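Subject: Predicted fold for Protein translocase subunit SecD, 615 residues

User T.R. writes:
Posting the sequence so we have a shared reference for the thread.
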Amino acid sequence: MLNKNPLWKTLVVVFVVAIGLLYASPNLYGEDPAVQISGLRGAQATTQTLDTVKADLESADIAFSNIELDNGQVLVRFTNTENQLKARDVLDGNLGKQFSVALNLTPATPEWLEALGGSPMKLGLDLSGGLSFTMEVNMKEAVKKAQEGMIGDIRTELRSEKIRYRTVKAAGDDIEIQFRNVEDIDKAENYLSRRNNDFVYRANEDNLTLKVSFTDQKLKEIREYALEQNITIIRNRVNELGVAEPLVQRQGQKNIVIELPGVQDSAQAKEILNATATIEFRLVDQNGDLSAALNGRVPPGSQLLEDANGRPSLIKKRIMLTGDHIVDAGSGFDENSRPQVNISLDSAGGTRMSNATKSNIGKPMATVFIEYKPTDRKDAEGNTIFEKHEEIISIATIQSRLNKSFRITGLDSPAEAHNLALLLRAGALIAPIQIVEERTVGPSLGAENVKSGFQAILVGFGLVFLFMAIYYRAFGLVANLALGANLVLIIGIMSMIPGATLTLPGMAGIVLTVGMAVDANVLIFERIREEIRAGKSVQQSIHQGYDSAFSTILDANITTLIAALILFAVGTGPIKGFAVTLSIGIITSMFTAILLTRVVVNGAWGGKKLDKLSV
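User M.O. replies:
I've generated the structure tokens; pasting them so everyone works from the same file.
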């Protein structure tokens, strides 16, 4: 019999719509204002921190709805933003510099729904509020860092060729090599110029020096590399922060724009993003006099550094390896259950470490943590001057010749190991960065955008609903049912996809989908009308209407989907947000307009003897 639903088809439609309703429902519960207390530089909140927070809030007479400790963080929920802001001020003053106190919005989803994996849609910066940074890359430091690396390479190359020299040091924008005689200058210039075309060489036989400087093309490459590499590393660090759909993109010749949706307090974000951290491996100076160094007589070629507990050691300046060669780092425990960081190097780094350690077995090697911190001073061009802070992480004896994989031990806690591994895994910034602009988009502004966006969706939905109900009568109501189901499925799928974020352009995609979703039904209903006018029976008209219109609907939607996928592939930011909701809407509208409506139509009118049809 025509137009009878197989049981499996009905069950599929009911199941898909029910799943869509289930996972769309968390969006109805809204969010609770909350305060999140997180440890800085590897510290973690404990039950003692939880008790302290609870006591501080109670003594300040600030009511809270819930407080919990999870993954080393304390989360306090409130019923209103007034108490949230009061709590932030109180806790920020009481907890000191060991913890960051961040404002947050936490989903109020019931526990039973969370247990099923239900969570509300993640909203973009324009809807939920958040932080926006414009960061400037310090290009002078990028060139200086490249210069320091070349000084070490030049020393190594001259030694390998047995060309004698006195010193190799930085002299402004140049690298100055001091020799003992003119013959060595000629040998060095000939050898180095054959090995590297990225330098300009200027010999001065009067004072026995050879000055080496970068070519203009090489300087341009260094600056470009610093910017692009910093963008890549910041993206990795933002991913480590767990921010949904962040925006990290280039702006001009030396700026990077970062948007962090949902983040309302910048303490932790600044710490991770600003950390120009790397490590260097150097030998310990066993022959130097530590007592004399503490009195100001530091041996040439060495420097006095301290560890986190203030214990001094004499460390050689010569760098065996820098953190630029690290490709992976993970925290763990050694055979004695002490925290450690396991490091993997790239092939070039493995070779350098192998060559550096083969003749130093049995000698102590220091792992030095280096961080550039901004000061209040400015240079002649108005750029912030950064100070280099060096600290010994560990000193361990080289037991054997190291290669691409080795470990750092001597860390104080698993949290410190985890934090160090995070920074090393995310990468060391090629050059220091500073925040030149910081904007906080408040949740109230986001709420206005959400309200406007949903008003646009509801107005569009309502107008389409009225048109379909008036023009196609009973079949129009079926189309409206499919339209509502389509909207629920879009929201449900957006809530289920871990990385999906709804932005204002994404809302525009939903509004467009609302209008497009009924196109398929219009084609089907018009074809049914044509079949009825041609004198066919009601059942044959329904059957032919759906079957004949299917290929046209499929072609039209596939071409639109291809366009949406191209937008997603080549677009950035707002364009991606628009393409995501449009793509999802096209797929769900195909399901609701063809399969769902046919199940409903067959259930209401299929298999019955009818003389006319309300279409």
